Amino acid sequence: MPDASGAVSRALRAAPPDQLAEAADAALRRVFGASRTEVFVADYRFTGLWPVLDPELPEGGFLACQGVAQRCFSSQEPVLDTGEDGRCRAYLPLSAWGERLGVLMVELPAAPDAATVAAVRDAAGELAVALRAADRETDRYRRARRRERLTMAAEMQWDLLPGRSVTHGDFVLAGQLEPAYTVGGDHFDWSVDGDRLTVTVLNGAGSGLAASLLTAVTVNAMRNARRSGGSLVEQAELASDTIFHQHRGSRHVATLLLELDNRRGVVRAVDAGSPQVLRLRGGTVTPITLDQQLPLGMFAETRYDVQEFTVEPGDRLFVVSDGVYAAEPAGREPYGDRAMARAMRSTRLQPATEAVGTVMRELHAYHVEADLRDDAVVVCLDWRGSRPPDGDVGGR
């Protein structure tokens, strides 16, 4: 099927943004002889996968799909489920540039061969990219993702995010916000540009809409400097000056700015407040000690210094806000004293996209079923080590 994904791609390009699932369904039936398809999207907390084409999917059928679809979503590999009648349901990951959006289910007349599985997976990739782009034009897929109403602050925060994961030849990066439906000021941002990866984690002050507005100003000021070619220091200083001129020191934002040189494994950092970075190497979790500078916006014309540390191939970095490491539910010791490191060590065989969920689930469990008292951000970065440039057979 040399042009199978091309046929799906053409159908998606011709479809309105709110009709991508229907366009994919028609193309998959035509090209692969599928008798049924379904698009499942992950909710904001990654607690489940929810149907787009048939929101009223009967409970029994939905639960049967959910378990197999979840295996596909977690592994990011195709999963085949052949029934007694010989028909086969193929579950394919819907991922765009490493961001996990959901799962595509295609019901085929018989178990497919490897070439057909590869072709359907390519079609799923085309659909994932289209869904990612369509979020700017329609609310349909966002509605399918939410299990409850977002607060106004949370609506702003989720719209401001770059995504929830990204994959590069040299790294895998993932992040998660909690409480997903009521998050206020905490946030993360990132940008990939050639050999440079910029990551920022913000510990927004206050709560609710005021905190979200402050975070939005801060993130956009840093983006403005970054997109104008500004260094890490210039990003911090423009954001700090912007916040100060708006609030005259009455509001400020604790922020950690990181810039990874993918070729050399060197991380440049501006530590402007409380987010912490920890390294998981082998089975050992080690805090990266940085000189903490003033939070952004505390004083006029604050100047910042860059610090550096190195990473080795296979290193995993976690960046967490104080809502994670400083959490003290019901008088217990802070989560960051011992429980957080145990949770991080337990992720060493998981991909970064699963690791952020593990640390968040353990944080929720640490609260003994009570709601989180503070916003929480976990970002996980796996550095694989630089690839040699084209033509360089010597490597590193």
TrEMBL record:
Database matches in InterPro entries: Bact_Sigma-Reg, GAF-like_dom_sf, PPM-type-like_dom_sf, PPM-type_phosphatase-like_dom
Record keywords: Hydrolase
Enzyme class: hydrolase
Coiled-coil annotated residue ranges, if any: none
Keyword Transferase: no
The PPM-type phosphatase domain, residue ranges: 168-383
UniProt keyword annotation of Hydrolase present: yes
Enzyme Commission number(s): 3.1.3.16
GO molecular function: protein serine/threonine phosphatase activity
Protein name stated in the entry: PP2C family protein-serine/threonine phosphatase
